């Protein structure tokens, strides 16, 4: 009984925790920290359990791997459904994996810079988990708004002129994008009369020819909203400033925010315009490929021209989402599941690495005096009372912190540049291999994508190595003091990265199963309707009745 | 009625887009409000325009669905109104904070001439 309700737990746990913490006074940071860490840890456990459940389906042909949850026990096209498949489960694990280090890092000092940090963080997790799980487009909008509203608060956390300005741009862009989202959703509803993704996938082939352009327009407008979130090229100018301005632990969590946009595009385009799309098959594939390539190009140029590490990290976020976007386009055009599998594996690795990089930026740039000086400075500038400063944990590392930071930084760079032995390399090799083998698209397009992919790795290496040399070798300033609480999360993320690399075969098997499931939409599209309502199900425990 | 409604949506969104592209933050807020009105009307119209038809069906018996308005877009509009109202309020707060910190109401926090 509990077992089938586990699907909704990743949404309920952060919701309840976040709401509960609103009742606590803001000074009870210890309690709040432990509550949110317990919440994030239980989300991780549940997500792992859900991955196991999604995986045991094994063969894609039976719908075993996909579980459906009817909210309020309404039958499929009428009520909202939550859908757990391999992709959703994978993203849930990734979210929880990022959340724990970010929370620990925030405990070292950032949570003191404003109010309700931990509550907003939990609501962000709720929105993310919900967006990954939902099977209904309008519900997707609601979860997007939840995660966006939380992210507005988190971006502004710590205040200051830079953050407020970046926050204002970020909010304005996202409000406009939400309106586009609504227009797209209502156009789709106007044409097909449904908002359920699975139902849409069934109906798409039989839409009347005269209505089809309207449907395409609706989906295209909807994808503009997703592309804004994914940071695709002409819509991404807000992203570097916003990510750079965000507090370090917030930036680390934002690393997955662009991937929500990518996820939504991947999910909807494969479902609607995959092989079962009828005349709509492969709609928008070439646009996605070109946008992906433009995003990679923009990211790599931006990376080479940035002077600060924060901006570089933001541009490497762009490169990683551009890569996955482009591959989505190729997969949509009939490139086959192999490249998508590589791209998903690359996505896991790059999200972990950019997240670790965001956590590294702030300790690396701390000139001297350690965290106390940083806090005093911010508190001074933004008029916070300074009573909190005495509470700064006194666990500064006595060991040569620079060495540890340097090694962590080098590992992040190796990953992002796609050098062995980290997952960046494995993922890129898988992508390139599949791109060479594909025959569905002109070879020139595939080769130019490969070229850009490799070039982006080179640019990352050049740009990051420059900053690394400046910070670690050519720096005569006093060594910064770094708290153990700040280094531990980075090391934890890197350990996960190393595990991703060690277990590459198992993970690639999982992602290739995911990619095949994304291509074969039948289980998703028809499974919902085969799910019995709880009210219709024969009662098992009333066995005494003949 | 179709012409009036579509003209209203068109004019609202045209003025909204114009205002969103202006450099003053207050204009941007008003622009976003107008755009959200346009979008709300648009969602509403996607349930087809049926004057004088109730959206709720009576209980029991056979009902002819053509005599009722589509209730779903009306529910969607409610949700959309609440969400856009809340986020606009949040945006206003940020705008005022920015005005207080920078001393100008330019969206970039500084006048172009400076």
From TrEMBL, chain A:
Topology term for the membrane: Multi-pass membrane protein
Keywords, in A-Z order: Cell membrane, Membrane, Transmembrane, Transmembrane helix
Coiled coil location: none
Stretches assigned to the NADH:quinone oxidoreductase/Mrp antiporter transmembrane domain: 136-440
Compartments (UniProt record): Cell membrane; Membrane
Domain of life of the native organism: Bacteria
Entries under InterPro entries matching the protein: CPA3_Na-H_Antiporter_D, ND/Mrp_TM
Keyword Signal: no
Annotated function: NDH-1 shuttles electrons from NADH, via FMN and iron-sulfur (Fe-S) centers, to quinones in the respiratory chain. The immediate electron acceptor for the enzyme in this species is believed to be ubiquinone. Couples the redox reaction to proton translocation (for every two electrons transferred, four hydrogen ions are translocated across the cytoplasmic membrane), and thus conserves the redox energy in a proton gradient.
Protein name (Swiss-Prot/TrEMBL): Monovalent cation/H+ antiporter subunit D
Organism: Paracoccus fontiphilus
Automatic annotation (TrEMBL), chain B:
Bilayer-crossing regions: 26-47, 75-97
Keywords from the UniProt entry: Cell membrane, Membrane, Transmembrane, Transmembrane helix
Record family assignment: Belongs to the CPA3 antiporters (TC 2.A.63) subunit C family.
Organism the protein comes from: Paracoccus fontiphilus
Name assigned to this protein: Na+/H+ antiporter subunit C
Pfam families assigned to the protein according to its UniProt record, in alphabetical order: Oxidored_q2 (PF00420)
Subcellular location: Cell membrane
Membrane topology: Multi-pass membrane protein
